[in-house]
Amino acid sequence: SQSLDHLDRNQLQSVPDGVFDKLGSLERLD
Predict the structure, then answer these.
(1) Selected residue with higher pLDDT from 16 and 2
(2) Lower CB density within 10 Å: C or N end of the chain?
(3) pTM for this structure?
């Protein structure tokens, strides 16, 4: 899951918050 955190920090400025909400849910299932 740490690789996802890396992507989050890099793409936070260009990707909508909704996308990260979904990613967060997937990470928790991970």
Answers:
(1) 16
(2) C
(3) 0.23
